Amino acid sequence: MHPILKLVAQRLSLGILLLFAASALLFGLTEVLPGDAAQAQLGQSATPENLANLREEMGLNRPAITRYAEWIGGILTGDMGNALSNKLPIGEQIGKRLGATMFLAFWAALISVPVAIMLGLVAVRYLNRWPDKVISGSTLAAISLPEFMIAYILIFVFAVKLGWAPSFANVPPDMPLLEKLHSISLPIAVLTMVVLAHMMRMTRAAILNVMQSAYIETAELKGLSSFEVIRKHAFPNAVAPIVNVVMINLAYLVVGVVVVEAVFAYPGMGQYLVDAVVKRDVPVVLTSGIIFSAVYIILNMIADIVSILSNPRLRHPK
Amino acid sequence: MSSPLLSVRGLKIGATVYPPDAKPHDIKIVHGVDFDVEAGKVLGLIGESGAGKSTIGLATMAYGRGGVKLTGGTVFVNSRDVLQSDRRDVRNLRGAEVTYVSQSAAASFNPAKRIMEQVIEAAVSQSKFSKSDAQARAVELFRKLDLPEPETIGDRFPHQVSGGQLQRCMTALALCPEPDLVVFDEPTTALDVTTQIDVLKAIKEAIRDTGVAALYITHDLAVVAQVSDHIMVLRQGEMIEYGTTDQIINAPVDEYTKALVSVRSIDHKEKPPSGEPLLRVQNITARYRGTKFDVLKDINVDLHAGQTLAVVGESGSGKSTLARVITGLLPAREGVVNFSGRELSPELANRSQDDLRELQMIYQMADTAMNPRQTVGTIIGRPLEFYFGLKGAEKQKRIKELLDEIEMGDGFIDRYPAELSGGQKQRVCIARALAAKPKLIICDEVTSALDPLVADGILKLLLDLQKVEDVAYLFITHDIATVRAIADSIAVMYQGEVARYGGKTEVLSPPFDDYTDLLLSSVPEMKLGWLEDVIANRKMQSGGN
Question: DSSP letters of B117-145?
Answer without folding.
Answer: HHHHHHHHHTTSS-HHHHHHHHHHHHHHT
